[in-house]
Each structure stands twice: as structure tokens, then as C-alpha cells.
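User: Good morning. I'm curious how nicotinamide-adenine-dinucleotide would be positioned relative to this chain. Could you predict the structure with it bound?
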Amino acid sequence: MIEVANPRTGAVDYRFDAVDEAGLSKLAARLRAAQGQWAARTIEDRCEALLGWADSIDRHKDAIAAALETDTGRRRIARLEVEGAIASIRGWAAGAPHLLPQPQWAEGRMNPAIRHQAQDVPYALTGVISPWNFPLTLSLIDTIPALIAGSAVIVKPSEVTPRFAEPLGAAIAEAGLSDLLAFAPGDGATGAALVDQVDVVCFTGSVPTGKKVAVRAAGRLIPAFLELGGKDPLIILESADMDRAVTAALRGSVLSTGQACQSIERIYVARAIYPDFLDRLVTAAEAVRFNWPDINSGELGPMIFARQADIIAGQLEDAVARGAKVLTGGKIDRHGGGYWIAPTVLTDVTHDMAIIRDETFGPILPVMAFDSVEEAVRLANDTVYGLSAAVIAGTIEEAEGVGRQLDAGAVTLNDAALTALFHEAEKQSFKQSGLGPSRMGAAGLLRFYRRKALIAQTGAPAPLSAFSEG
Ligand code: NAD
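Assistant: Good morning! Here's the predicted structure, ligand included:
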């Protein structure tokens, strides 16, 4: 029995039994048995079935949003996750049928009598392992295109935020998809066992766990698509509009209490505008309120995972001990049994501090001044991560010039963390932030197919004598 704490109260208010190896193996067999017929349907047909699922999620949206609210301690974002899931299914259903090339025979270049045609064959069973920060969004982001491709899917949601899976399961059953999509609740042991059952695994989570999943997948020679952590930099050039810079920096860093992989975690500002930027950032940060005691107020929820508060406190302590100055925030607040962290602006930080090197996953804004664009680019790229980054300048062209030099899979120009709000652009995760094709755009669907070649001899087969040595 796994116990789950409520992030707003700290009290254990949910318990569940983890699916074990035997349970997973039974589940996998049931889904595999149904997958053949699913894959044999046309892509338009599968999209139609998924549109039915979007409608059933819509009918169950209050129950799903309520469970997500308890999982995460936030109301508005919980609702946005549900609306986003419905929109994502409808968007994929509208676009996916146009993404696959129409199969046709092509004549060989050397021998036109030999023709070939491609068949795109989906992986039979996809495993999805998701984290706690956006429990619904990150459980479905790979699931939707995998199902459309013709795969069956087992999702292992985070043990920290498992409540939403029950009401979502009712919507899956109502749409008649229970034999193709199943949730297998559990902790890391269930996640590891899932890797042993599937033909491809999509993992979203931390770098250390991602590496374990990659090793286990490698042992079975199955692909692992990994979407891992980040330490996203924001560069603010001297020409930047100050209001834009402050608005984007604050929202990009503290939205979802900073519990987002694409959060801005380091800010580099041109020295000429550094004092003014800091003043304005501190004023803006101090106006941010918790959604406590009323969940219908404020902008920041609690830390979803209590242990994350310890990590953040440790990084802050280390930074201050090494000379960092806290201009606002800087401490963990306890309200109602939960852990809350106000937006925290830090200066006098250096690249040997954990708060600049390691993922923080909280509403923390360490700010450094730079003297040249070269220095800003060097500092921004001085990281093992390469998830995303942002540049703000007076013009898009100037921001683009710097963005092209950043070693990250997505760069937002003249805003921050746009990958949270815009899912159409293909992007890969660079360096330790991940592995595999883009989960966004056309590649998000195409990565669930293997390409098979049908090669037809329309002439006479070559006799062995054609290869005779004599
Ligand atoms: P985590 O790595 O601790 O856990 C993620 C999932 O892996 C959970 O479901 C967990 O039960 C499971 N798991 C644990 N051990 C496992 C094992 N040995 N084998 C298989 N599965 C196992 O991550 P988290 O703390 O839940 O999430 C936060 C992390 O996720 C952050 O690092 C964040 O940056 C990252 N993240 C990345 C993206 C992205 O798109 N790149 C998006 C959101 C979050």
C-alpha cells in the first residue's frame, strides 16, 4: 500500500496498491491482444475514436480537475491541464492523418523492375512513465500520438500525484478504450517493471531516473525517449524593453511554483540595466501571493512534493554560505501542513554554487550581470543541461542572433519558457536533458512507427550464375 500526502495539508489522504510485475504482465498481454485490430484500423478511424475520448474527458472534467487539484494543490492550472488534454487530443486528431506520407510504389534507381514501398508499423505496446509536476499533461503528451499511431499504451503515473488516474479511467472506459490504454499506478519499482513489458518507453522525469530507464531499456534493446530536467538560462540584453523583461522573467521562473522542467532557473542581465532590472524584479516578486488559505486567490501553490522543499532549502543555504545575497524571499514557509516558497531573488551568485549548477525546481531567480554578449552566451551554455533557454532583446532579430548560439533544444525569443504554452514546434532535448526525437510536431507521431520496406521484383529474379566467380 502506497500512502500519498496532500500538498496543501501534509496529511496522508490517499492510499493505493501498486501494480506488481505479475499484474503488469497480465495487463500487457490484454493490451497486446487488442492492439492488432487497433493498428489495422485506418488512422482516421483511430482519430475518430480518440475524439470520442476527448468528449468523455469533457463530460468527466470536473471530477478529473478536482482530483488533480488535490494532487497538486492548485486549482486554475489543474483545470487548464484538463482543458489542455482535450485540446491536445482534438488537435492531434485533426492533424495526424496528414502527417503520414501516402504509401506508393517507387521504381529502383539502378533497376526499375525492383520497386519498393514503405509500410509504417507502430510499436505494439508503448510504456509512458510520468512525473508529478503536471500529472495529467505529462501522462498524455506521449500517450495521445502513440495511440493515434496504432500502439496500445500503459501509463505509470507518479506515486506523488496518482489521484487523477481514477476519474480519467472512467472517461477511458466510457470511450471504449480500456483494452488499449491502461494506467498502472505504482512507484519506481512499477516503472522499472514496465520497461520490461513494452516495446518503447517514453520517460519524463529527472536525469538520474532517466539514466536508469535508459540502461534498463538498453538491456532489452528497446528505444527510450527521455525528457529530463533543465537549468534554463534567460539572457536579457541591454536593448530589452524593461517591462517585457521583468514580466517574462518572473512568470517564466515562478509559474507553477517553479515546478516545471522549462522554468527559467538562471538570469543573466546586461550590466547597464542590471540595477534597474533588479529593483523592478524584486518589486514584482514581492507582489506575488500564495493561493493560501483560499485556493481561489494568489498565483503560487504549495510545493507538490515535500522533499523538493528540502532540496531548495539546501541549495539556498549553500548559496548564502558562499556569499549570495537574498533580495527577497529565501525561506520555506509552512501553512496548513504544506510547504510554500515565495519568489526568491538572489544576487552575488557564481557558477560553482549548486543553485546555478543543479536543477532547483522552485520559484528561485538567481541573477548575474554580464559585460559582453560573448560572456552571456558562455555563462548560459556552462551547464550539463540543454532543455531550453530564452533571450530578450530590443528586436527579435537581435534576440535570434544570440539564441542561435545557445546549446539548448528550444530557445524562446522575447519571452520566456514558451515551450510550456506552445506545443507545435519540434524540439529535442540537448545534453543531459534528454534523448530521442521531438515529442512536439510531426516527429511526435512519427517516432512511434518503425519503417518497413516492401521490395517487389517485377522482373525475372537474378539467377545464382549472375554472381558466378568464373
Ligand atoms: P523522477 O525521476 O523522480 O520520477 C519520474 C517517474 O519515474 C515517476 O513516475 C517515478 O515513479 C518513476 N521512477 C522512479 N524510479 C524509476 C525506475 N528505476 N524506473 C522507472 N521509473 C522510475 O522525477 P519527478 O521528481 O517525478 O519529476 C521531476 C523531474 O521531471 C524534474 O527533473 C523535471 O525537470 C523533470 N521533467 C522533465 C520534463 C521534460 O519534458 N523534459 C517535464 C516535466 C518534468
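The pocket of nicotinamide-adenine-dinucleotide is lined by residues 129-133, 138, 156, 158-159, 187-188, 191-192, 204-206, 209, 212-213, 227-230, 261, 359, 361, 387, 429, 434 (CB under 6 Å). The longest strand covers residues 114-122.
Let me know if you'd like a different ligand tried.
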